[in-house]
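Researcher: Predict the fold of DUF1000-domain-containing protein.
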Amino acid sequence: MTIHKTIPTPRGPSDNVFAHIDRDNVIALNSTREGKLVIKPWNERLDERVYIESDADDQLIIRVPFTGSVKLRSLLLKTGPGDQTPEKVALFANIDNIDFSDAQDKEPLQTLDVAVGREVGEYALKPAKFPNVSTVTLFFPSSRGAETTRIYYVGFLGQWSERKQDPVITVYEARPNLADHEKIQGTEGNFSRPSQ
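Model: C-alpha coordinates for DUF1000-domain-containing protein follow.
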Protein backbone atom coordinates (compact mmCIF):
# COMPACT_ATOMS: atom_id res chain seq x y z
CA MET A 1 0.00 0.00 0.00
CA THR A 2 1.39 3.38 -1.02
CA ILE A 3 0.76 6.40 1.17
CA HIS A 4 0.76 9.76 -0.57
CA LYS A 5 1.70 12.77 1.48
CA THR A 6 1.07 16.25 0.14
CA ILE A 7 4.04 18.50 0.69
CA PRO A 8 3.14 22.19 0.45
CA THR A 9 5.19 24.26 -1.96
CA PRO A 10 7.00 27.40 -0.75
CA ARG A 11 3.86 29.31 -1.84
CA GLY A 12 1.81 27.10 0.46
CA PRO A 13 -1.14 24.90 -0.36
CA SER A 14 -2.17 25.06 -4.01
CA ASP A 15 -5.44 26.78 -3.13
CA ASN A 16 -3.83 29.53 -1.01
CA VAL A 17 -5.35 32.83 -2.23
CA PHE A 18 -2.58 35.13 -0.89
CA ALA A 19 -1.77 36.34 -4.42
CA HIS A 20 -5.38 37.48 -4.85
CA ILE A 21 -5.65 39.61 -1.70
CA ASP A 22 -5.69 43.38 -2.26
CA ARG A 23 -3.09 44.00 0.48
CA ASP A 24 -2.98 47.78 0.06
CA ASN A 25 -6.66 48.01 1.03
CA VAL A 26 -6.64 45.68 4.05
CA ILE A 27 -8.04 47.60 7.03
CA ALA A 28 -7.63 46.89 10.74
CA LEU A 29 -9.84 48.74 13.24
CA ASN A 30 -8.61 49.33 16.81
CA SER A 31 -5.12 48.24 15.79
CA THR A 32 -1.76 49.73 16.72
CA ARG A 33 -0.44 48.94 13.20
CA GLU A 34 -1.62 48.50 9.59
CA GLY A 35 -3.76 45.43 8.95
CA LYS A 36 -1.85 44.40 5.82
CA LEU A 37 1.12 43.39 8.02
CA VAL A 38 -0.59 40.10 8.95
CA ILE A 39 -1.35 39.23 5.31
CA LYS A 40 1.98 37.50 4.70
CA PRO A 41 3.33 35.07 2.11
CA TRP A 42 3.20 31.42 3.18
CA ASN A 43 6.93 31.23 3.92
CA GLU A 44 6.60 34.13 6.45
CA ARG A 45 3.55 32.77 8.30
CA LEU A 46 5.55 31.72 11.39
CA ASP A 47 7.45 35.04 11.71
CA GLU A 48 6.53 36.54 15.09
CA ARG A 49 8.46 39.78 14.59
CA VAL A 50 5.60 41.25 12.51
CA TYR A 51 2.09 41.36 14.01
CA ILE A 52 -0.84 43.59 14.81
CA GLU A 53 -2.27 44.17 18.25
CA SER A 54 -5.50 45.74 19.43
CA ASP A 55 -5.19 49.24 20.84
CA ALA A 56 -7.90 50.61 23.18
CA ASP A 57 -9.26 47.21 24.28
CA ASP A 58 -9.16 43.56 23.20
CA GLN A 59 -11.58 43.87 20.25
CA LEU A 60 -10.18 43.85 16.72
CA ILE A 61 -11.64 43.97 13.19
CA ILE A 62 -9.70 43.05 10.05
CA ARG A 63 -11.32 43.66 6.63
CA VAL A 64 -9.67 41.77 3.74
CA PRO A 65 -10.61 42.61 0.12
CA PHE A 66 -9.85 40.27 -2.79
CA THR A 67 -8.97 41.16 -6.38
CA GLY A 68 -11.68 38.86 -7.69
CA SER A 69 -14.34 36.51 -6.45
CA VAL A 70 -13.30 33.79 -4.01
CA LYS A 71 -15.02 30.64 -2.81
CA LEU A 72 -13.50 30.26 0.66
CA ARG A 73 -12.94 26.86 2.28
CA SER A 74 -10.57 27.67 5.19
CA LEU A 75 -9.29 30.49 7.36
CA LEU A 76 -5.64 30.33 8.50
CA LEU A 77 -4.69 32.09 11.75
CA LYS A 78 -1.61 32.46 13.92
CA THR A 79 -2.52 34.29 17.11
CA GLY A 80 -1.50 34.69 20.71
CA PRO A 81 0.53 34.14 22.74
CA GLY A 82 -1.52 32.71 25.61
CA ASP A 83 -4.11 35.12 26.98
CA GLN A 84 -3.63 37.47 23.97
CA THR A 85 -5.23 34.76 21.81
CA PRO A 86 -8.76 35.71 20.74
CA GLU A 87 -11.53 33.49 22.08
CA LYS A 88 -13.54 33.56 18.85
CA VAL A 89 -13.59 35.00 15.37
CA ALA A 90 -16.82 35.99 13.59
CA LEU A 91 -16.77 36.14 9.78
CA PHE A 92 -18.81 38.47 7.58
CA ALA A 93 -18.68 38.49 3.78
CA ASN A 94 -19.24 41.30 1.28
CA ILE A 95 -20.11 43.97 3.86
CA ASP A 96 -18.19 47.22 3.40
CA ASN A 97 -17.29 49.53 6.28
CA ILE A 98 -18.40 47.29 9.14
CA ASP A 99 -17.63 48.76 12.56
CA PHE A 100 -17.77 47.37 16.10
CA SER A 101 -21.46 48.12 16.68
CA ASP A 102 -22.34 46.52 13.31
CA ALA A 103 -20.22 43.45 14.13
CA GLN A 104 -22.05 42.99 17.42
CA ASP A 105 -25.54 43.62 15.95
CA LYS A 106 -25.31 41.65 12.70
CA GLU A 107 -25.47 37.87 12.47
CA PRO A 108 -22.10 36.55 11.20
CA LEU A 109 -22.01 33.91 8.48
CA GLN A 110 -19.87 31.74 10.74
CA THR A 111 -18.27 31.97 14.19
CA LEU A 112 -15.22 29.90 15.10
CA ASP A 113 -13.51 29.14 18.41
CA VAL A 114 -9.81 30.04 18.16
CA ALA A 115 -7.35 27.51 19.57
CA VAL A 116 -4.48 28.52 21.83
CA GLY A 117 -1.12 27.56 20.33
CA ARG A 118 1.98 28.79 18.53
CA GLU A 119 1.18 27.10 15.19
CA VAL A 120 -0.91 28.31 12.26
CA GLY A 121 -4.40 26.92 12.77
CA GLU A 122 -6.60 25.96 9.82
CA TYR A 123 -10.29 26.61 10.48
CA ALA A 124 -12.74 24.98 8.09
CA LEU A 125 -15.39 27.29 6.68
CA LYS A 126 -18.76 26.29 5.26
CA PRO A 127 -18.19 26.82 1.51
CA ALA A 128 -21.94 27.20 0.91
CA LYS A 129 -21.84 30.34 3.09
CA PHE A 130 -18.78 31.81 1.32
CA PRO A 131 -19.33 31.03 -2.39
CA ASN A 132 -18.72 34.44 -3.98
CA VAL A 133 -16.65 36.60 -1.64
CA SER A 134 -15.12 39.92 -2.66
CA THR A 135 -14.38 41.04 0.93
CA VAL A 136 -14.28 39.17 4.21
CA THR A 137 -14.35 40.85 7.61
CA LEU A 138 -12.94 39.12 10.70
CA PHE A 139 -14.26 40.29 14.07
CA PHE A 140 -12.35 39.24 17.18
CA PRO A 141 -14.70 40.21 20.06
CA SER A 142 -12.36 39.42 22.98
CA SER A 143 -9.07 37.92 24.06
CA ARG A 144 -8.61 35.08 26.56
CA GLY A 145 -8.01 37.49 29.42
CA ALA A 146 -5.37 39.98 28.28
CA GLU A 147 -6.14 43.64 27.70
CA THR A 148 -5.11 43.28 24.03
CA THR A 149 -5.48 40.75 21.22
CA ARG A 150 -2.50 39.87 19.00
CA ILE A 151 -2.58 38.44 15.44
CA TYR A 152 0.56 37.30 13.57
CA TYR A 153 -0.89 35.80 10.40
CA VAL A 154 -4.17 35.71 8.46
CA GLY A 155 -4.55 33.58 5.34
CA PHE A 156 -7.26 31.90 3.30
CA LEU A 157 -7.67 28.75 1.24
CA GLY A 158 -10.19 28.61 -1.58
CA GLN A 159 -10.82 29.06 -5.28
CA TRP A 160 -10.31 32.43 -6.94
CA SER A 161 -12.01 33.56 -10.14
CA GLU A 162 -11.83 36.80 -12.05
CA ARG A 163 -14.56 39.31 -11.25
CA LYS A 164 -16.68 40.17 -14.24
CA GLN A 165 -16.77 43.93 -14.79
CA ASP A 166 -19.12 44.15 -17.78
CA PRO A 167 -22.86 43.85 -17.17
CA VAL A 168 -24.78 41.11 -18.88
CA ILE A 169 -27.44 42.54 -21.20
CA THR A 170 -30.30 40.22 -21.97
CA VAL A 171 -33.32 40.94 -24.15
CA TYR A 172 -36.45 38.94 -23.57
CA GLU A 173 -39.23 38.77 -26.14
CA ALA A 174 -42.72 37.92 -25.02
CA ARG A 175 -43.71 37.45 -28.63
CA PRO A 176 -41.02 37.42 -31.34
CA ASN A 177 -41.41 39.65 -34.37
CA LEU A 178 -39.86 37.92 -37.40
CA ALA A 179 -39.08 41.30 -39.00
CA ASP A 180 -36.63 42.00 -36.14
CA HIS A 181 -34.49 38.96 -36.93
CA GLU A 182 -32.06 38.24 -39.74
CA LYS A 183 -33.09 35.56 -42.17
CA ILE A 184 -30.93 32.46 -42.33
CA GLN A 185 -29.79 31.76 -45.88
CA GLY A 186 -31.23 28.63 -47.40
CA THR A 187 -34.43 28.69 -45.39
CA GLU A 188 -36.56 30.98 -47.57
CA GLY A 189 -39.96 29.41 -47.05
CA ASN A 190 -38.69 25.83 -47.07
CA PHE A 191 -39.71 24.70 -43.63
CA SER A 192 -40.65 21.14 -42.98
CA ARG A 193 -43.51 20.48 -40.62
CA PRO A 194 -43.74 17.41 -38.47
CA SER A 195 -46.26 14.90 -39.73
CA GLN A 196 -49.38 14.45 -37.65
